[in-house]
Each structure stands twice: as C-alpha cells, then as structure tokens.
What we know:
With 345 residues, the chain is α+β, with helices and mostly antiparallel strands. 32% of the residues lie in helices and 30% in strands. The chain contains nine helices and twelve strands. The chain has a five-stranded antiparallel sheet, sandwiched between helices.
Amino acid sequence: MAEKTKTSLKDPFKELCEVYVLYFDEARGHVPLLIYPSEKMIDDKKYMRVIRFHPVWFLEIEESEALNHIDLEYKGYNFMAKKFLAKSSREKRRAGLEEKTPETIVIILSLPTDVSIFGDDLVQNITTGIKENFGDKFSELISGTIAKDEIIKTPAMKEKIVVSDGIKENMKNLIGRIGNNYLSRVIRQADGSSLKKQKAISYLYLKGFDFSHITMEDGAETYSTIQLFDPSKKKEEGYTFQAPFSLININIDEESKELQILVKNNTETSQTNLTVKITHVREFFEKEIMNQLIEEWFPEEELLFISPIIPHINEYLFFVLSANEQKLLSKKIDLELLNSHINSN
C-alpha cells in the first residue's frame, strides 16, 4: 500500500486517468495511435467500444470546434473529446484522397466523474500541447502505425516504425507533464469556494495525493483555502448545502404526451442569461429537443418547462447551464421509473 501511494504521488496523473489519441483511417475507420499511460487494452474491442463510438466521431469538424469538448458519461467515467485536423504528407489508401488531405485527429480524456470538474481545462491543455508540439508529426506517426500491421516489413517500413515509436513516446511524456503540472496547480490553488471542487480535491486526497500544505498537524494557517471532507467528522448542526437550483416536480401529461418539469431558483439573487436544455440519448448519440434561454430567473421563483415526449424514448437529460456553460443543475429522467412511482401513489 505504501509503495502504491509513493507511486501516485510521483506521477498522480498516470494513476487518475487515461488519454486516447486516435485518427480516422481511410481504410479501417477509427484507429488508436496511443493510449496514455498503458496500451495493454488497445486491441480489446469490448474495452475500446465506448471510444470508437464516442459522439465526437459523428460531428463535423466545424461543429466540434464550436464546442469546448464533447462529453460522454459511461460507467462512472466522463469521456471528454476534442476533434481537429492535422497536416499530412502521407500517401492515402483510398481513391480520391491526396497526400495533403488532412488527418482527422481525436483526443479523448477519461476521468472519474468525481473529478470531472477538472476535465474542461485538462482536455484543452492536452489538445493545445499536442497540436503545438506534434501538429506536423501525425503523418509520420500514422505511417508507422500502419506499417506495424503489415506482415512483411521492408527496411523502409521498419524505419517508419522506429520514427513513429519515438514520436509516440515523446507525446506520452508531454501528456504526462501537462497532466501532472495541471494537477499540481489545482491542488495548490487558493480558491476553495466551489463545493464541487472541494469534493474533487477530497477524492484526490483519498487516492494518495499530497496535501501536506492543507493538512498541517499544528493547525497553522496554510496558503490554501481548500478544506478536505473528513468522513470521520460529524456534520455541523444546522448546516445543509442547498444547490442553486432544484427540481421540484416532474409530471407526465398523457393526453398531450408532454413532460412537465418544475424547477426552483433557490438563491437569494436573480440569475441571468441561463440556458435550459432537455436532451435524450440513444445508442451513444445525444439529441437536443429543447434549448431555452432564461434572461432573468428571480429569487425563489419556480419555472415550468414543457417538452414533448419522443416515441420509444424513456431516458432524458435535463440541464440548467450558466452563461459560461457551467452545469448548475443536471438530472436524468427515466419515464419508466417515473410512471411506476406515479402509479404506486
């Protein structure tokens, strides 16, 4: 146990998440170039299924670039993806494509949902770092990856593999440096006002991260305002955390086939320029069925949102987003569970 803690402190990013770098091959489809930190599951089709069918693959480059990243939540992990085009000079294997046809690159960051609040900055930093340092190296990396699959390898192919492996190793080292530097800054930040961030920091603490600057035994003040959640301590009397928005009631109108969602602003101030979204998911694809701008939501005010029920769709996602796209409220709505609850009452 002590050895594992020592390892996690030395390279915490490696212990916490995975980064996938993939490209779209004109002959084989979605192909992984590398997985950080370990590639032992790269050929496992079941393990890689969520990566190969991530929604980011099915968006146009223009659509993807307009968004910070594309998310998919699956089995306790958030898969945050960025898509971009990279320069290419390799000979393509499909008619109609030129050597200079750009490569379609996808970067996916996998994080436990408990620390997904760090994902926005992390996936942006990793993508920027890879584009700046390896933007003109992808054709060599891909050529070596293709050469590895050839049964008979010529000296030229072997040389491509050596060059590709060197690029891959350097890219992995860059990903590790970016991730560890970012986590080091997060852990030593001075802003502990966000409850989500404090919970995420506490998750890292339980994983063995270094928080000696926060948990000083002599009780002296430290330079961080973060307070770790200690499950051994009893909750202070009279203290409860109240989210800025809460879902008061969900109702199904059988006649109009509509979903009626009542939401309350719990804060004591007006909230402006909020976005309310309702989406549904089918086979990894998320489709938006309502997107409404709330210019001003008054204190303690309850608003009713009505959305059509899509035939044969039972699961919906409800979001209240701030002007900078921060999730102030997110709720999964299962119509089957809702119906059974209504009928039982």
